């Protein structure tokens, strides 16, 4: 307790029922959640009756591990942390009858699009009438369910950028009936194929808890305390899940409204602002002292929030020294940026006594960091990536998992199509016909016997044997994965020949180890789909399919800002803070989106402890200034780039010279004489 300040201590030792810890970046929210769990366990609460909920598996693991290392292991063994989705998935598996969804297969967003493509193919007339991509239809469906908005309202905000004029109203009226048909068909498809998408997991649990006293009684006995991190990112659907626990358990929620960056997923930071009203009998504890960053770093972060029209009422004060001013580095290209960063890191590593893990690189997208990754590989700087495509979402893994999925749930059409078309010579049309026959066979025959006949020929016997072999191994998930991989590996190596050896092959031993943690195929598939960052031997290996560049525990982290919540590092590079990126050119006509982009930048800036290095692109700055000069000093334009009015007294600005690794040469080439050096005597 002596490591907590007075307010943190009050929160940790809170003796009332529900508490909101409202705090700024780096003020110890995570530390306080960890402290709270340890305190409760220390005071005799059964660790198995505490549930920690976070937004990433990584954050959940970190909190649980830190609680475990803070007190005796015998009392913390049952402590659980999970994301909202994986918690619901666990509840469904743990209480199969209560939630009635145990024989369902969880499908991920890629699969949702796959299912929607099938629908769009079947409902060509409606699909043509709406002119929206399957991905957009899925987004609309998910947004409406997460925000509990009507279809009309959802269309207005997702497709028509919130416009309310007559033309927009008319257009919404016209397309809505067709979208309704497509979305209903998607719902039917889920029901027929026994699919649960991610949102269904929450809905199934939330609905049951809301209407069923028995369900509440059962869960109340299991969960005394619910600890929720990043409360500002919860959306109305997640709120529906939390709400029944107000009467069943004690809520301990921590949040920061200035770090709310998930409104595109429906996050509603009113869950923080209106906490006291929504949770009767609750109290609020404010934390305001920042322990992470030096004051100069906070000055830039504070300045950024002050320029917002929203009043966050947050002025972070450092508990540390003034430190060094942040650096604003102007670069002429991404390659220069990459070279500059890698040299700084190598310099810090060799001369500055810093480890690679002391460095965190933040970018809006993983895609932007490709040149940086290339330079890191070239210069042998070990790194891991957070964000971007996840391990279980990568194509080669999904190919193998498709076989496991059809064994687990033979009604799984999406997996059948993926599995069948994986094999050379089976195209989508043949595969669709096989799938129809497979599904109708399920009603009266044994599929393992019938599969060779349905597919026919050599393919039929080969795939039939493979299906039966994996079916036999169902009870041993690791063996099932091993067998599936071994049988498919030749074709995998061929399909992904471009980067098989360098990137993909090494993922399969990891998949096997991961499978070993699960008791049944169904559990592996539903958990594995959700859980992308499982800790294996203490190393977070599954954040991305490209694990680490070396077998090295000390590595730089390259993260998207959205995946960097809760992270901190001695030195942070925030990449490409240029016009049209902060805020994004896509968001300029929507004030809410601009403000969300400001919070994204705020999250990035507040990750740094001692060194903050912001890079930006010289040519976009010049282009931006030219636009301002051409149009006159237009306030609206200047405010469309967050750093435009940054007081230069807050940073050190520097231009990076062109990187010329070759050195200067003379202008014209000399001749060479190839007869030299040979003595014919
Ligand atoms: N009372 C304290 N004394 C010393 N260090 C502290 C104290 N409270 C927090 N810290 C340190 O400050 C840093 C930030 O804490 P923490 O990660 O818990 O903050 P946070 O509020 O969750 O941050 P964010 O929301 O920005 O991710 C950590 O390194 C933590 O160890």
Walk me through what this model shows.
By secondary structure, this protein is of the alpha/beta class. It has 4 domains: 6-101 and 202-287, 3-Layer(aba) Sandwich (Rossmann fold); 105-193; 318-382 and 541-655, 3-Layer(aba) Sandwich (Rossmann fold); 392-532, PCRA, domain 4 (Orthogonal Bundle), CATH 1.10.486. 51% of the residues lie in helices and 12% in strands. The chain contains 32 helices and 19 strands. Strands 13-16-12-17-18-11-19 form a 7-stranded parallel β-sheet. A 6-stranded parallel β-sheet has the order 3-2-6-7-1-8. A hairpin with a 2-residue loop joins β14 (535-536) and β15 (539-540). α7 (109-122) packs across α9. The protein is globular, with a radius of gyration of 28 Å. Bound molecules: adenosine-5'-triphosphate (ATP). Adenosine-5'-triphosphate (ATP) binds at residues 3-5, 8, 23, 25-31, 256, 259, 291-292, 566, 568, 606.
């Amino acid at each position: 307790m002596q490591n907590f300040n007075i307010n943190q201590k009050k929160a940790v030792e809170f003796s009332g029922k529900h508490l909101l810890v409202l705090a700024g970046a780096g003020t110890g929210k995570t530390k306080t959640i960890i402290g709270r769990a340890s305190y409760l366990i220390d005071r005799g609460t059964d660790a198995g009756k505490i549930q920690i909920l976070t937004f990433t598996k990584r954050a959940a693991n970190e909190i649980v591990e830190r609680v475990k290392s803070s007190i005796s292991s015998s009392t913390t063994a049952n402590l659980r942390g999970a994301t909202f989705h994986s918690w619901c998935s666990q509840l469904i598996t743990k209480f199969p009858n209560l939630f009635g969804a145990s024989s369902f297969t969880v499908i991920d967003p890629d699969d949702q699009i796959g299912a929607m493509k099938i629908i769009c193919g079947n409902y060509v007339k409606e699909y043509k009438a709406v002119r929206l991509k399957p991905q957009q239809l899925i987004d609309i469906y998910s947004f409406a369910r997460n925000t509990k908005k009507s279809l009309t309202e959802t269309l207005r905000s997702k497709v028509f950028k919130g416009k309310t004029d007559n033309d927009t109203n008319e257009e919404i009226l016209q397309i809505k009936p067709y979208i309704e048909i497509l979305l209903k068909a998607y719902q039917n498809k889920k029901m027929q194929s026994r699919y649960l998408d991610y949102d269904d997991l929450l809905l199934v649990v939330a609905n049951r808890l809301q209407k069923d006293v028995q369900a509440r009684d059962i869960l109340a006995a299991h969960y005394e305390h619910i600890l929720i991190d990043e409360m500002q990112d919860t959306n109305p659907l997640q709120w529906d899940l939390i709400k029944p626990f107000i009467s069943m358990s004690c809520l301990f929620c921590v949040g920061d409204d200035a770090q709310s960056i998930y409104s595109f997923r429906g996050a509603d930071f009113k869950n923080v602002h209106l906490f006291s009203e929504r949770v009767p009998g609750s109290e609020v504890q404010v934390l305001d002292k920042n322990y992470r960053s030096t004051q100069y770093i906070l000055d830039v972060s504070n300045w950024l929030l002050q320029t917002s029209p929203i009043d966050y009422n947050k002025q972070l004060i450092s508990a540390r020294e003034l430190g060094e001013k942040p650096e604003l580095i102007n670069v002429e290209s991404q390659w220069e940026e990459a070279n500059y960063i890698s040299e700084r890191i190598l310099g810090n590593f060799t001369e500055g006594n810093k480890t690679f893990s002391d460095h965190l690189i933040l970018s809006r997208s993983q895609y932007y960091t490709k040149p940086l990754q290339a330079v890191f590989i070239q210069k042998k700087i070990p790194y891991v990536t957070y964000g971007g495509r996840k391990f279980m979402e990568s194509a080669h893994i999904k190919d193998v998992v498709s076989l496991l999925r059809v064994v687990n749930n033979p009604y799984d059409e999406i997996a059948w199509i993926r599995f069948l078309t994986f094999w050379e010579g089976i195209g989508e049309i043949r595969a669709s016909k096989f799938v129809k026959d497979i599904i109708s066979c399920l009603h009266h025959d044994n599929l393992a016997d019938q599969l060779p006949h349905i597919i026919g020929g050599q393919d039929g016997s080969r795939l039939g044997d493979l299906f039966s072999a994996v079916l036999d191994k169902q009870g041993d998930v690791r063996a099932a994965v091993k067998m599936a991989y071994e049988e498919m590996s030749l074709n995998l190596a061929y399909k992904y020949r471009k980067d098989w050896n360098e990137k993909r092959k090494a993922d399969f031993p990891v998949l096997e180890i991961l499978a070993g943690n699960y008791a049944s195929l169904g559990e592996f598939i539903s958990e594995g789909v959700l859980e992308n960052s499982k800790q294996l031997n203490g190393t977070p290996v599954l954040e991305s399919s490209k694990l680490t560049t070396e077998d090295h525990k000390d590595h730089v982290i390259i993260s998207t800002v959205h995946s960097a919540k809760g992270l901190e590092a001695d030195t942070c590079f925030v990449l490409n803070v240029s016009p049209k990126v902060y805020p994004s050119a896509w968001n300029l006509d929507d004030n809410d989106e601009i403000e969300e982009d400001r919070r994204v930048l705020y999250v990035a800036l507040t990750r740094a402890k001692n060194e903050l290095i912001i890079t930006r692109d010289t040519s976009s700055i010049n282009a931006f200034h030219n636009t301002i000069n051409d149009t006159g000093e237009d306030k609206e334009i200047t405010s469309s780039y967050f750093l435009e009015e940054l007081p230069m007294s807050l940073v050190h600005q520097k231009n990076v010279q062109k990187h010329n690794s070759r050195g200067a040469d003379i202008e014209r080439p000399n001749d060479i004489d190839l007869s030299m050096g040979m003595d014919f005597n």
